[in-house]
Amino acid sequence: MGFLDEQGGVLGGREEQSPNYSPTERPWYIASMGNLEVQVSEPYLFNSLQKPGFTASRSLKGQNGVYGVDLTLDGVTKEISALSISENGGLVLYDRNNKLIALSTRLGQAKPMSEIQSIDIPALTVFASVLDATTPGELLKTEGGDVDFFISKEAISYAGMDFYIGAVAPVGDFTKEFIALQNRVLLISLVSLLLFIPFSYVFASNLSKKVTDLTGAANRMREMDFNVQDMEMSYIVEFDELIHSFSDMSHTLGDKTEQLNVSQAKLSRLVDLGISMAAEQSSDKLMETVLLGAKDLTNADGCSLYVIDENEQLEFKIFRNDSLGISFGGTAESTNAFANIPLYNEDGSQNVSNVVSFAVHEEKTINIENVENSLQFDFTGPRSFDAKANYKTVSILTVPLKPRGGSVIGALQIVNARDKETGEFIPFSEEVQPFVEALAAQAATSLYNRHLLVAQEALMDALILLIAEAIDSKSPYTGGHCERVPILAMKLAEKASEGSAGSYADFKFKTRDEWREFEIGAWLHDCGKIVTPEYVVDKASKLETIYNRIHEIRTRFEVLLRDARIECLQAIVDGEDRDGAEAKFETRKQTLVDDFAFVAECNIGAEFMHDDDIDRLKRIAETVWQRNFDIRFGLAHEEALRFADAPDAPCSEKLLDDKAYHIIPRTRDDAARMAEWGFKTEVPDDLYNQGEVYNLSIRRGTLTAEERFKINEHIMQSIIMLERLPLPNYLKRVPEYAGTHHETLIGTGYPRKLTAAELSVPARITAIADIFEALTASDRPYKKAKTLSQAVDILSNFKKDQHIDADLFDLFLTSGVYREYAEMFLAPEQIDDVDIAQYLG
């Protein structure tokens, strides 16, 4: 056997005298022959060294031989053999074919490279029985047999080979020391127990008494009884310290509980005050509640409340002093005798010399323990008051009133805290100050909210008046209607609320909100008129639109008269007899004059139009006149579209005509819109019809069906406008009160054809007020104002027809409301005597 260097030189060698194997027959030689890749053999026992190892081999380049290198596992086996786990345990090194390579000495000696199962060692036998069921890194405790074993194995790699190292040891190797220790502890415990039973009994009896005392004290403390008697001392230091600590704790808890009860009472009072302030509607009562609550919380002798006015001064609103018996503001009837405190000096600088104005400017609480020792503020005023009233101001607590997120609106000042036992004046404690500040914050928020609500109501009232005035101002002929109807309705509602008969027997407005809701409904009963064209509302003649078209027709008559005169003169020029021509002209002239007078009379609409009148009107309309100018000249784009089909000039036209451009169609589906809101009113096909014959043929009044619907539409528009508003709950009935004054008790009114069962008493009251005001109004262009007796008589017909409530009509007369209203708004010549007896019942 030889060993060569890199150049093939001989490094050394060894000669075997009687080798019992041939290298060329070894598996490693055979595997490498013809293979230039390095081959590694399975571990085996070297024949020459009698040591385990493996061979790495590769074919020569000429493939006429094999290089071979033997690598021993001698170092590994020595390392394994030296290792120990426990007294009877050890490590096992084996290959992937479970061939034993090495084991520690604790497991005994075995023949190298034998199968692990062939070794007759208990630990290895157990290890071999569970070898296949164990995975790398798993700890397995075997059961059965005389001894239990802990077994574990891990995979390792060495020189490209996979090996496994296993650990095996009896369980007893690890537990016997613990068992021995357990036995020793048990023995010592038994001996100690026998020795200390008598001593323990005496000690436990004494200890039990102390524990019993402590338990009793703890139970009393659990029942909130902190009056724990001092217990006897104990010779045990820990118990003695516990007894002292327990006694101190009981006294401390008693003191804290008393303080907590006081604080809880103040907090409860603060909550009650907050609830009262939230529910209070009157600003004066609200401020009085705040003031008295602060005085009660601090057990003070006096208090004041200031509010910043529009002149940037702190106005004395409320003052109370128990010792002096002085009270003004709030519910007190006495007047204020104190001057306001300016927030700014004459030069515009902040007034910080006064403690109240300083607290307002700085937005912080000022707690003065003794006025005599305070040099920061000017107390000339309080000292002057003290001298006059024989009083002494000692302590002052001033808290600004500031709502969350807002500006300071005033200040709360409390004077002279009193000792509960002696009644002497003392400083305000730091403990009570947070309660006063919390009360001031609540009060500021409540006052701010109250002022905000008042301002919102004022704003709403102003907007309502604005709408009503806008409607009245829109037409000079309906001015005052929206103002007078609420006044008359409120007067009748007051009488109905006081009565107890008929349909209004159960009617009564109980709260201010209910009265306000009804009044707003009356004010807004015609708010929809804001979208009604005034030329429709004010239409005084049949041909009137934005202007009175009778002038156009008169001009046509002028043209016809001029044509007749020209014809007369032309006839004379052509040789016709002058007298005959003049006579014909005069006859034609008289006809034109009579026809125009008739048309003009029809336009006024004062008389009912009979069939004969309509027939004559149509005959006059057939008269032809000559138009010589293009009617489409001078028109805006949209208007020109309406005249697109008009004939070109010159052309002959009728004296009166209903032309296509007189029709103004609807631009939306109003019928569907009305139905959507529950209105049961017939909607005309066209928005307007301005036809001349069509308008002059109106049998009664001056309005066409389209214009009548447009006017009636105001009530529907009122309902739509009001029902779309996000009204608060206390105003939810405003749309009802405002939108039902044109309904009747028999379902013939509009817009929803409600019946008596669906009409409330306030709605019926508004209906009477609306009709009576319209009858007596002297500002209508289309009718003459009625006298008082005429209006009552007409209103009685509404009663007979069941259009208005009979009981309320009788109350309207018997209560004298009709007369009271007449004296307020009717002209003297309208007010005449009315025999109401004939209308009652």
What does this structure look like?
- This protein is α+β, with helices and mostly antiparallel strands and 841 residues long.
- The protein is built from 24 helices and 23 strands.
- Strands 12, 13, 14, 15, 16, 17, 18 and 19 form an eight-stranded antiparallel sheet that branches. A five-stranded antiparallel sheet has the order 8-7-11-10-9.
- A hairpin with a 2-residue loop joins strand 10 and strand 11.
Rounded to the nearest angstrom, the distance between the terminal CA atoms is 152 Å
What is Rg? 59 Å
Overall, the morphology is: flat
Q: Averaging pLDDT over every residue, what do you get? A: 80
- Please report which band the strand proportion falls in: under 5%, 5-15%, 15-25%, 25-35%, 35-45% or over 45%: 5-15%
Q: Compute the number of strand runs.
A: 23
Stretches where pLDDT is under 50 for at least 5 consecutive residues are 109-115
**Helix residue percentage:** 40-55%
Would you tell me the structural class of the helices and strands?
alpha+beta
Q: How many strands, which pairing sense, and closed or not: the largest β-sheet?
A: 8 strands, antiparallel
What's the helix count?
24
In short:
The chain contains 24 helices and 23 strands. With 841 residues, it is an alpha+beta fold.
Layout: helices, strands, pairs:
Layout lengths: L1 E3 L5 E4 L13 H6 L6 E2 L3 E2 L6 E8 L6 E7 L1 H9 L7 E6 L4 E4 L18 H8 L10 E2 L7 E10 L2 E10 L1 H51 L14 H43 L3 H16 L1 E9 L4 E9 L4 E3 L12 E2 L12 H8 L3 E3 L11 H10 L6 E6 L8 E9 L6 E2 L6 H42 L6 H18 L13 H12 L10 H4 L12 H24 L4 H27 L6 H11 L2 E4 L9 H6 L8 E4 L8 E3 L4 H7 L9 E4 L2 H5 L8 H19 L10 H6 L21 H16 L11 H13 L5 H9 L2 H9 L16
Helix pairs in contact: 4-5, 5-6, 5-9, 6-9, 10-11, 10-21, 10-24, 13-14, 21-22
